């Protein structure tokens, strides 16, 4: 421990300073040390070697942290200079004791007070011959002067040169951005200040590196002065033998050299950190913390090193054990961090990088995503339905749906794209038409749908629900219950078929919207291969815009375009009379009346509902008056709101009555009323088919089930 000691003469000094060595006083005792030296030159108080070493280590960290910001270069060098000056105290170690000389010029103490006993003594836990030797001083000199200082000086020179050479280009780039309107005047001034500050910083560091190197050289010169001058003074002034003078003053010089080189090495290292660090917007403290704490393995390694040092004889056991435990606990806590946080951080970094890369790309037609006509998005639990290893059940059924719809309507349905969508619920799917969501549903991915029929008896255990396509009540059962459900009369449908049925229903209702000019081209190419002359006449009679309206009107009412030859023949003939797409579609329906009525005929009998005479006459007068007042489309004739409400109530009733009787819902009306009532039927009673009197073939027997009033 540190204690006061009185002067006892030169002989005592020789024994005490036999293996002398120099260390630095900690900053916390500088003021107390200074005041005691002024008053009595015999400071009081105690300090242990372990405490002394820990404070020196903390001072080193302070120097590095000061160097973390380029704006604090002056503060850094000032602090380093104060540290170097206040650490010019020295102590000697001999047989387990070390003596510290008070604050003052170390050179003067060695040269003029070398024969006096030092005022302070420190008990050292181990021999100085083991801890430090003469080779340590040479090692510090070599590392500081040749490695650290020389490298930092060279790097600062190159950095300053490159920075100054790049200044004109940076200034021109700022002016170019300002002229292009990318930045305003205030931003340009800020950038110019940043460029000037950067140049000033590297220029100052170039000069400061010379001071750093000079500090190292000065330490070597002081060492030579102490060595040569001390030996000479010991021989000629104090009449010491050459061997005694050399031994005493060399050991003291080595100690002073160590004291001078420790702060000098810290100063050089901190300067090297500044000049070798890549310039960015962060500070070095954040970088060090991030890199040291990035992985628990770093802390585990430090824990092991601290523990090994704790068990070394002569080392302070308690501090190293505490640090080892603290680092081990911190590493353990870091290893227990949830992996989800790391995954989220990576996803955010990926998203940020993607946004950055996207923002740097030029906007062009290629960067605008295309809208797909038909697409099906699946939740991640439904992705297994398109897995090749499981036979692609959904893909096969979707392909079948596309084929059936294309065959029935006479036009090629666009390809149905299937993709995974993480925004959906796990068991949810969504159907998109032209990029807009048409419908969605959520089904149990691992269950089967049991649909009751007229032959079903009993109830099966499962989850009650509704059919996504038609809303019928169903029961979702486990795959192991399939045989039981079939025996009970249920229709068992797998998830792939459920989704395909829903897609079939939605796509059929959007076929007119999916039909476009390219489909007309393909349809006419097909016509050209069968009737080239007819195809030419049709193209001459009607343009694509008129044909698109006619074809869409037919598809809206469920008329197939397979018989394109008949359709083209009628359009060529009727186009000489009218270009109205509703009238042209009516002529086509008349020509295709047998194929239109065929689905509703049972044993050459057609069961229908009609309008009563009063309602028929009323609607006929409304249509005639509208046409006399001006040109009005037959499907857009204005009707009294009260009559519209009656249609809204009675049309669904007609549909349900005919379905309850086992008949297809068909409403038979006059030709001039069919477009208007067909539109109302689609709005109020989907599935109710509206036919005109002319569209019923002569060979069919007509059976009237009732009249709509």
UniProtKB/TrEMBL annotation:
Transmembrane regions listed in the UniProt entry: 60-83, 89-112, 216-238, 258-279, 291-312
Topology with respect to the bilayer: Multi-pass membrane protein
PROSITE patterns: FHIPEP (PS00994)
The keyword Cell membrane appears for this protein: yes
KW Phosphoprotein (keyword) present: no
Keywords tagged on the record: Cell membrane, Cell projection, Cilium, Flagellum, Membrane, Transmembrane, Transmembrane helix
InterPro entries found in the cross-reference section: FHIPEP_1, FHIPEP_3, FHIPEP_4, FHIPEP_CS, T3SS_FHIPEP
Gene Ontology biological process terms in this record: bacterial-type flagellum assembly; protein secretion
Cross-referenced PANTHER family: FLAGELLAR BIOSYNTHESIS PROTEIN FLHA-RELATED, FLAGELLAR EXPORT PROTEIN, MEMBRANE FLHA SUBUNIT-RELATED
Similarity comment text for this entry: Belongs to the FHIPEP (flagella/HR/invasion proteins export pore) family.
Name used for this protein in its record: Flagellar system protein
Organism whose genome encodes this protein: Escherichia fergusonii (strain ATCC 35469 / DSM 13698 / CCUG 18766 / IAM 14443 / JCM 21226 / LMG 7866 / NBRC 102419 / NCTC 12128 / CDC 0568-73)
Biological classification of the source: Bacteria, Pseudomonadati, Pseudomonadota, Gammaproteobacteria, Enterobacterales
Name of the coding gene: fhiA
């Amino acid at each position: 421990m540190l204690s006061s000691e009185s002067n006892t003469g030169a002989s005592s000094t020789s024994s005490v300073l036999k293996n002398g060595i120099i260390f630095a006083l900690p900053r916390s005792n500088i003021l107390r040390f200074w005041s005691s030296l002024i008053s009595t030159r015999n400071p009081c108080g105690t300090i242990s070697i372990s405490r002394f070493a820990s404070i020196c280590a903390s001072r080193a960290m302070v120097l590095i942290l000061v160097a973390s910001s380029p704006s604090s270069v002056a503060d850094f060098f000032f602090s380093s200079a104060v540290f170097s000056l206040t650490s010019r105290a020295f102590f000697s170690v001999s047989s387990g004791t070390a003596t510290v000389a008070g604050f003052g010029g170390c050179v003067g103490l060695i040269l003029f007070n070398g024969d006096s006993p030092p005022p302070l003594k420190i008990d050292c836990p181990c021999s100085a011959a083991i801890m430090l030797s003469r080779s340590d001083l040479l090692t510090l000199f070599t590392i500081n002067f040749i490695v650290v200082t020389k490298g930092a000086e060279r790097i600062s020179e190159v950095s300053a040169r490159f920075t100054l050479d790049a200044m004109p280009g940076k200034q021109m780039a700022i002016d170019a951005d300002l002229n292009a309107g990318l930045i305003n005047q205030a931003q340009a001034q800020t950038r110019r200040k940043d460029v000037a500050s950067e140049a000033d910083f590297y220029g100052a560091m170039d000069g400061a590196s010379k001071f750093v190197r000079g500090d190292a050289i000065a330490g070597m010169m002081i060492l030579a002065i102490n060595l040569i001058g001390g030996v000479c003074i010991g021989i000629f002034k104090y009449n010491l033998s050459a061997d005694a003078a050399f031994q005493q003053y060399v050991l003291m010089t080595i100690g002073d050299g160590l004291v001078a080189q420790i702060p000098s090495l810290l100063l050089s290292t901190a300067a090297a950190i500044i000049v070798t660090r890549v310039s960015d917007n962060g500070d070095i403290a954040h970088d060090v913390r991030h890199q040291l704490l990035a992985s628990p393995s770093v802390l585990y390694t430090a824990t092991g090193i601290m523990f090994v040092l704790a068990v070394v004889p002569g080392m302070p056991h308690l501090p190293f054990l505490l640090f080892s435990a603290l680092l081990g606990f911190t590493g353990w806590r870091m290893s227990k961090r949830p992996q989800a946080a790391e995954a989220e951080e990576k996803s955010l970094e990926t998203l940020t990088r993607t946004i950055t890369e996207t923002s740097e790309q030029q906007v062009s037609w290629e960067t605008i995503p295309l809208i797909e006509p038909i697409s099906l998005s699946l939740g991640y639990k439904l992705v297994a339905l398109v897995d090749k290893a499981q036979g692609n059940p959904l893909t096969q059924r979707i392909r079948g749906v596309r084929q059936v719809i294309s065959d029935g309507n006479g036009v090629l349905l666009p390809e149905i794209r299937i993709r995974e969508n993480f925004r959906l619920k796990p068991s949810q799917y969504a159907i998109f038409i032209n990029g807009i969501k048409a419908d969605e549903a959520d089904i149990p991915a691992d269950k089967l749908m049991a649909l009751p029929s007229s032959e079903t008896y009993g109830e099966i255990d499962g989850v009650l629900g509704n059919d996504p396509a038609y809303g019928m009540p169903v029961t979702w059962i486990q795959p192991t219950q399939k045989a039981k459900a079939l025996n009970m009369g249920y229709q068992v449908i797998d998830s792939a078929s459920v989704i395909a049925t829903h897609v079939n229903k939605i796509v059929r209702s959007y076929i007119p919207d999916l039909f476009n000019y390219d489909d007309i081209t393909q349809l006419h190419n097909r016509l050209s291969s069968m009737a080239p002359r007819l195809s030419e006449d049709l193209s001459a009679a009607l343009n694509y815009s008129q044909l698109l309206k006619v074809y869409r009107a037919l598809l809206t009412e469920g008329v197939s375009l397979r018989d394109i030859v008949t359709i083209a023949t009628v359009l060529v003939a009727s186009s000489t009379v009218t270009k109205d797409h509703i009238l042209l579609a009516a002529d086509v329906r008349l020509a295709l009346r047998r194929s239109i009525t065929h689905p509703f005929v049972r044993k050459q009998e057609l069961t229908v509902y009609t309008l009563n005479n009063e309602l028929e006459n009323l609607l006929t007068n409304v249509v005639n008056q509208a046409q006399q007042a001006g040109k009005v489309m037959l499907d857009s004739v204005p009707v009294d709101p009260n009559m519209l409400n009656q249609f809204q109530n009675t049309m669904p009733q007609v549909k349900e009555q005919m379905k309850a009787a086992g008949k297809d819902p068909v409403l038979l009306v006059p030709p001039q009323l069919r477009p208007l009532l067909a539109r109302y039927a689609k709005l109020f009673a989907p599935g109710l088919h509206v036919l005109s009197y002319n569209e019923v073939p002569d060979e069919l027997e007509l059976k009237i089930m009732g009249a709509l009033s």
